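Record type: monomer structure entry
Structure origin: computed from sequence
Chain ID: A
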Amino acid sequence: MRTIAGVTLLVLLVLAASGAWAEQPEEYVLYGSYEDVPSVGWWPADASGMIGVGGVEFFVIPGNGGGVTLPVRAEIVDARITEILSAGISGPVCVGDVRGQPTIYVAEHRLITIYDVDAANAGACCAHTLAEKWAQSVAAALPQVLPSPYAAQPVEE
């Protein structure tokens, strides 16, 4: 009986130790603020990325903004859209202000901050004009992709 217990203990120790050296899964980092995001150089203006859910386009980010690469910006916006949709929020969508830059909000959730370089790369006259355009697009797109449990239900009389 002691031999079985000893072998079992040895096997458990080997399994536990091998887990420590096993390859760890890739870690995804979601940044809470722009101060946390690693700063990088600017990508060319022709590097852009469509933000959307399924086939519904929200807007196109026309490159870097605020010193953050396009892939990182897209990842941040994707996480925020997921949070918004998971909570069943479809509005109101408005433009506010973060550190002097126009920022799109869905209810109290910050979605994206628009920079002057975004406006220049998108051919808009200023960041605020581009923010208003994107906010209208987001307001139109959210109800189309809202999960069905949150979709507007008929009002019972």
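Annotation 1: The first strand starts at residue 49 and ends at 53.
Annotation 2: The beta strands are 49-53, 56-61, 93-98, 101-106, 109-113.
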